[in-house]
Amino acid sequence: MAIYQQVLREDYHRLHPALQKRYQFPFRGSGMMHKITGGPKWLYPLFLGGVACKLLFPERGENIPFTIVNSVRTGAGGEQQVHWERVFYFPGKKRWFNALMSLDGERNVIKDYLGEPGLFYSDLTFHVTDRGNLRIESGNQRLIIGKLEIPLPKILQGLASVEESFDETKGIFTIRVEVTNPLIGPLFSYEGEFVSDERL
Q1: Which conformational region is residue 48 in: left (phi greater than 0), alpha (psi within -120 to 50 degrees), or beta?
Q2: Domain DUF4166 spans what residues (predicted)?
Q3: Relative to the CA of 112, which of 64, 101, 105, 137 has its CA 20 to 30 Å away?
Q4: Per-chain mean pLDDT for the chain
Q5: Three-state secondary structure call for residue 36
């Protein structure tokens, strides 16, 4: 059973059937980000510094092709992990936004380590909307320096909100991601659509 089915429990079956299949792995998809936006220009060095660890990138734009690959791994303790590779194809360059997720069954949250190597950690909670969409919200976050994990106060956090759905009229998945900070406001967002490569 996939970790996302475990965290959603009985609500998993309220997901749109296409999303239920999409969250059984492995999964490969490709599509188009209609727009990718960011925060204040003075944050450019931060986003540029994230390129090396496949966590952040400074580029923004519209109609950016992208691919997503989800694969299953086994952690050191035998736990199931899901690797997320998201690649955005800007003109003349590729940028990554990668993560490694696993289940914390006691707290019923997904543990999300962002970047390679992981430099940032966030708890993720999963919910199913009345329309059968999947909604994901970030929780407690930590900065990772080597083996040290430093809790971040809310004022320094990038609070993420994600909604994924399936458009039956077009036969496509849709995705919207927004990351904000309590002081700065919007930090990073993207929205677009994609299909499973199995149908291509």
Answers
A1: alpha
A2: 15-194
A3: 64
A4: 95
A5: strand
